[in-house]
Write a structure and sequence with these properties.
With 496 residues, the protein is an alpha+beta fold. The chain is 35% helix and 14% strand. It starts with 16 loop residues before the first helix and ends with a helix.
């Protein structure tokens, strides 16, 4: 068995409150960040050796991923690196391997083809290369074909050998991403180290530059298209579409009712509303931010997304709903403390939105204190059909494995069902949407006299506004303090 280096523990080096505040205020420094990265890597390697021992594994091989081509074509899909690989190694590119063994130090193989079609960046130019090679042995490989197969064959003769990746070069009969191993390696990524938080803060700074540009462009009240706003975001963030952790959601008017709206209309309109859900990435780590804006009260010719003029859009009502949901979001995130069940926090968000819908007369029904919980959930989910949030990290919907089992952990609309813990990084993103299909399904139900009903004519008047989402990213520090990283960085950028 490989011995753990003296002074290195398996406890993750989480970020303190003061460190996160410092990250938000200062520019990224390669020299200052080196210490955070090395501590992250040392922790990751020590914890991985503990996983091998706990599961009785002799070897684990992790691939960075494989380039895949379109059907009947030689053009490749956009490449996304395996997050299990990225956790240990910041080098981009396909066909790299990390080999963990109970008999020797971790070994990194970097694929460096002799190619005149595509450029392969030199990993030795990467600012983290010296840190990586200080704790791993390494080699360069110019050939990819058969390399993984030979390594698996050799290691399987020793003991239980596992492969984590998606390469087609794996021969039949080898264990690929079994659930027990995936769970262990997933839980390793749950608590974010100071290095990971530093990267997230940098991704947040980039995304907020884009959000600020979109806010200014929309509030100018000049006709603008979704495509114009998308290009504005690209320009402000200085990232390409391949670098974003997910495609930016740029939705004018009724298009905001599609939770993952995926079109970018060309029509230039003076819209009644604008919903943007867009992030950025830094060193593979994601930010994920949503904001909603109301059209100007000073224009009588506000339109829907197609440019159809709306005679008397309830702009004031929509603005009150936006303010109410923002207050709910700002009330919820400080409740996200270690030991809190996220399912219960989601339930709290349903209750608060139910009360807001009652107050704004979008629904009629018993007060929260007496309404049946199932009835409250049923009507609220018409307007709020998704979960309160999700884990965030190397994937925008990052790993989320339950450390504790409890009866309520079966909610299909909730991605994040963990008990919150120190080091968790996650989103808080309640929403209110005006989705005709969900409204129609509900109003067609046979309801008893004590069940809530929908004020259909009022809700229909809000269809052109689409929806509202307010989303921030929250980190639970080493001390257990919930920090709203998004607002913290936003405040600093405003002060600048």
């Amino acid at each position: 068995m490989v011995k753990q280096k003296q002074g290195v523990t398996s406890h993750p080096p989480l970020a303190s409150e003061q460190e996160v505040i410092q990250f938000s205020r200062c520019g990224f420094s390669a020299s200052q960040s080196s210490g955070h990265y090395l501590k992250h890597l040392q922790h990751a390697l020590a914890a991985t050796q503990a996983i091998l021992a706990r599961l009785g594994l002799s070897d684990v091989i992790i691939s960075s991923g494989e380039m895949k081509t379109y059907y009947q074509d030689d053009q490749t899909y956009p490449f996304g690196i395996n997050p299990f690989f990225r956790y240990y190694c910041p080098i981009d590119g396909a066909y790299h391997l990390i080999h963990f063994s109970d008999r020797k130090e971790p070994h990194l193989t970097i694929f460096m083809p002799d190619d005149f079609w595509l450029v392969t960046p030199n990993p030795e130019d990467h600012p983290r290369w010296q840190d990586v090679t200080s704790v791993m042995t390494y080699e360069f490989a110019t050939q990819q074909q058969g390399r993984l197969s030979r390594l698996l064959t050799k290691c399987s003769q020793v003991g239980r050998c596992i492969f984590l990746g998606d390469e087609s070069d794996v021969p039949e009969g080898y264990e690929c991403h079994p659930p027990d191993v995936i769970r262990e390696f997933g839980q390793l990524r749950l608590q974010k180290t100071s290095w990971e938080v530093l990267c997230h803060v940098e991704a947040t700074k980039i995304a907020l530059q884009g959000h600020k540009a979109l806010e200014q462009r929309f509030l100018q009240s000049e006709p603008v298209s979704e495509r114009d706003l998308y290009y504005e975001y690209l320009q402000a963030t200085q990232q390409t579409s391949e670098e974003y952790p997910y495609p930016p959601i740029i939705a004018l008017a009724e298009n905001g009712a599609f939770l993952h709206y995926n079109l970018r209309g060309r029509s230039k309109v003076r819209s009644v509303s604008f919903l943007v859900d867009a992030g950025a990435s830094f060193a593979g780590y994601a930010s994920d931010i949503s904001r909603t804006y109301r059209g100007s009260l000073h224009h009588n010719n506000l339109t829907d997304a197609s440019g159809q003029e709306l005679r008397t859009p309830p702009v004031t009502l929509f603005g009150e709903l936006l303010a109410g949901l923002t207050d709910i979001q700002q009330t919820l995130w400080p409740m996200a403390v270690p030991g809190q069940c996220f399912i219960q926090l989601h339930l709290k968000s349903l209750q608060m939105i139910y009360e807001l819908l009652l107050t704004m007369k979008l629904i009629k029904g018993p007060p929260l204190s007496v309404v049946a919980e199932d009835d409250m959930k049923a009507v609220t989910r018409v307007f709020y059909p998704h979960g309160l949030g999700h884990m965030l990290g190397l994937q925008v919907h990052d790993v989320s494995f339950n450390k504790e089992s409890h009866a309520a952990a079966t909610q299909k609309d909730l991605r994040h069902q963990n008990l919150l813990d120190h080091g968790h990084l996650f989103t808080i993103e309640p929403g209110i949407y005006f989705i005709p299909s969900l409204v129609n399904q509900y109003v067609k139900k046979k309801l008893s006299p004590d069940q809530p009903t929908i004020a259909l004519s009022l809700v229909e008047s809000l269809y052109p506004f689409g929806g509202i989402r307010v989303e921030d990213n929250i980190y639970l520090t080493r001390e257990g303090i919930p920090l709203n990283v998004t607002r913290l960085v936003e405040k600093h950028l405003q002060n600048l």
